[in-house]
Amino acid sequence: MLAFPSESSFSAGALVKRAGAEAVAAFWDMSSYTAAQQAEMRIDPYEDAPKCKLGGCLLGFPGLALLSEEDVWGSFSAQSDTRAAIYFILTGIGLAAIGNLFTVLRRTSLGRRIAANRVVRRFRAGFRWIACSQPRAIGWIRFPTTGTILLISSFWIFILVWSLSIKPYYRSQWNVGSPPLAIRTGLFALGIFPFILAFGAKWNWVSFVTGYSHEKLQVVHQWLSHLFLVLSLLHTFPFVMAGREIRPNTDGKNPHHYSQIYYSGWVAHKVFYWSGIAALIPLAWLCWGSATPLRNRFYEIFKYLHFVSAILFSAFFYIHCHGLLGSWDYLWATAILYLSSVVMRFALLFVRNGRSIPRATVELLPESTVRVLISCPPGHRWKGGQHVFLNFIKARPLESHPITVANAPWLHPNAKAGPRTMMMLLRISPRSGLGPSLLELASTGSSTPVLIDGPYGGLMTSDLGVHEHVVLLAGGSGVSFVSSILQDLCERKARNFEGIATRKVEVHWAVKNAEASAWLDDHFASVVALVPDDFVRIHFYVTKSAITLDEVAEAAIVPAVPSITEEKSEEHESLNSKGSITSGFVPRTRISSLFSPSAVANLLFTHFHLNSSSTPLPYFTIHRGRPQIPLLLSQIFLSCPSTQSIGIAACGPSEFTSAIRNAVAKRQKEILLGVAKGAQEIDLHTEEFDW
To answer: What sequence ranges are listed for the domain FAD-binding FR-type (predicted)?
Structure first.
C-alpha cells in the first residue's frame, strides 16, 4: 500500500489520497511506474469508477473544507458522471410529473379556485409564455418552442461543462491509463442511453408519468441522441490523440513501430477499438439520417433503416462496453425499460385486435382524400384528438401509418366500450405508397382487415371542457384533430356531463380549395345538432383564388338553385364588410373571385342546402383568404370576459401552429405583466402533421 508521509494520516486529504492509492495498487502492478506516474494515476482514477470512493463519502462531512482542489476532483468517481446525467433527466421528468398533477387538479373545484388566484394565474402565464413562444424556422430547420430549447440547452451545457471543465484531459503516457476526458464523456453517454430509448418508444413510461405523448417527446429523443453522438466523439478523440504515441518494442511484438492505438486495434485486436468504430457508424446515421428533409422525403425507407441501425448500434455498443465499470448494468436496465414498453404496446395491440380483427371501408372524397370507416369490436376506446397507427394487413402488411381519428363518440369513463365506428381522413397520392390500394378499395366498396395500434396522443390528461370558451383551429387535414374534440365537447354538453364548463366553441378551418368542405360536412351537421344554436360557430377559410358568381351562372350551377335573386333579406345576408359569406342565400352579385365553379357548386349544395331547402346554417361562415392568426386570436381574447378562461387546440402545418403559439405567447406575456384585457387564462395544445 502506498503512503503519504508528508500529510497527517488523520487529515481528510490524506484519507482521500490513500483510498485512491490503494485502489490503484490493487488494480495494477505499480513497480514499473515512476512516482510522478503513480501520483498522476491517483487523480480521477479509472479503476475507482465502479465503487463509492471513500473521498466521495467524506464530501458529506465538514471535513470537506480540508480538501484541496486536487482532492475534490480526484474524489469524483467516473460513475458519478453517469449518475449526474441520470439525476438531471429524472429531475426534469419529476417536474413534468408535478405539472401533470396540477393539470389533473385543474378539473376539480379546488383546482378551479386555485387557478383563479391572481398570483397563480400570473405565475402560470409566465411559464406558458416561455413554453409557447417559438423561434422562426430557417429554411427546413424548425426550432422547438423556447421552453424546450431552454430545457435541452441547459442539459447540454450541464453535461459539456462538467465534461470539459475537469482537467487533465489526457494522461502523460498511454500506459498510465485511459484519458480521463474519454472515460468521463463515455459514461455520460452511457447514462443518457436509457432515456433515448424511453423517449423514443410509442408506449413509454415517461408519457404515463408526465402526460406528454410520444410525439411530444420526440424532440427530446432527437436532441439527446445528438448529444450522445457528441459525447461519443469526445470519447473517441482523446484515444486517437493519445494513441499517436509509438508503442515501445520492449516485448518484441511491435517490430514495425506501430502507434499505440493502431497496435491495440488492428494488431492486438482488442475489442474496445473495432467495436467502438462499428458503433459510431450506425450512430452517425441514426442522428444525421433523421434530418427533416430526408425523413419526410423517404419516410418508409427511413423507418426501416432507423430500426436496423438502432439494432446494429445497440449490439456494437454492448460489445464495446465489455462490462467495464458496471456499464452492462445500465444496458440491462435499458433493455428492461425498453422491452417493457414494447411488450405493453403489443399486448394492448393483441387485446384490442385479437378476438375480432376490425374491418375498414374506404370512401373517396375530393382533394385526393379518402375517408376510412372502421367497425371496431368491443374494447376500443379513444378520446378526441388522439391518433392511431393503422396497418392495412392485405395492402401494406409491413407498414403502419399514423392517422388522427376524426370522430370521438361519447363514452362514459366507467362504461364498457361496445362496438363503435372509427372515422379517419387520409390524404393520399394516387400513384404511390398506400394510395393505389385505397383507391381500389374505394372503387369496389369492399372492406379490408386492419390492425389498430393505439390510441396515442391527444390532450392526454388535459381537458378543454374546463374552459368556458374553446377555440379549435385547423389547417387542411388537421381538421381531423379538431373535429373529434368538437364532437367530444358537444356530446358532453348535450348530456350535461359533470365537469363541462364550456359555453361556446369556435372552429376555424383553413383549406386551399372549397371542395375540402365535403370531408366532414355531415359530421359537423350531426354534431352541431346536439347542442343549442349559439354553442358552436364554424369559420371556413378558402385560401385559393377563384371566380365570380356570374361565371358560376354560365357554368349552369345557379339555375339549379331556387330563388337566387339580387335582393337581400333580414334572414339571408350577403357578403359582409369583412369579406365573409354568412349562411343562407347568396345574392347574384360579385364575390370578389372567391371560388372555382366546382367549389361554388359544392358550397351551395353541401353547406347552404339550397338545392333541397332554404333553411340557413347559422353556425357556418365562409371567409376568403388566409386567417390572420394574431389578429383573430387577439379579438377572441378581448371579447372574452376576464372571469372566463380560453382553451385552444390547433393542428396544421408547422407555419400555422407556430403562428398560433407565438400569438398565445404574446398574450401570456401580457397576463404576466398585468396589462391584458379580456380573458386572463389561455390554455394551448398544438399538434403538427409530423414529428
So the answer is: 352-462
Do residue 292 and residue 428 come from a single domain? no
CB 476 within 8 A of CB 516: yes
- Interior angle at CA 642, CA 641 and CA 643, nearest 5: 90
Q: Nine-digit cell at 501?
A: 364548463
- Max distance between CA atoms of the chain, in angstroms, equals 110
Give the pLDDT score at 168.
85
Which of 76, 107, 127 is at the close of a domain? 76
Using alpha carbons only, give the angle 335, 338, 340 rounded to the nearest 5 degrees: 100
- Judge if 446 and 468 occupy the same domain: no
Nearest Cα to 281, choosing from 302, 323, 309?
Answer: 309
* Span of 15-19, 148-152, 279-283 with lowest mean pLDDT: 15-19
Range of the domain at 30: 12-76
> Would you give the distance in Å from CA 185 to the centre of its chain?
27
**Which tens digit of pLDDT belongs to each residue from 51-86?**
333 333 333 333 323 223 333 333 344 556 678 888
Together in a domain, 204 and 308: yes
Specify if 133 maps to a domain. Answer: no
Is residue 161 in some structural domain?
no
Helix (H, G, I), strand (E, B) or coil at 5: coil
State pLDDT tens for residues 201-245: 888 889 888 888 888 899 999 999 999 999 999 999 999 888 888
Q: Are 669 and 129 in contact (CB under 8 A)?
A: yes
607 and 479 within one domain: yes
**Cα atoms in the Cβ-side hemisphere of radius 13 Å centred on 539:** 23
Q: Is residue 578 part of a domain?
A: yes
Residue 32: DSSP 8-state: G
Distance CA 160, CA 165 (A): 8
Q: Grid coordinates representing 65?
A: 473544507
Number of structural domains (the chain) is: 4
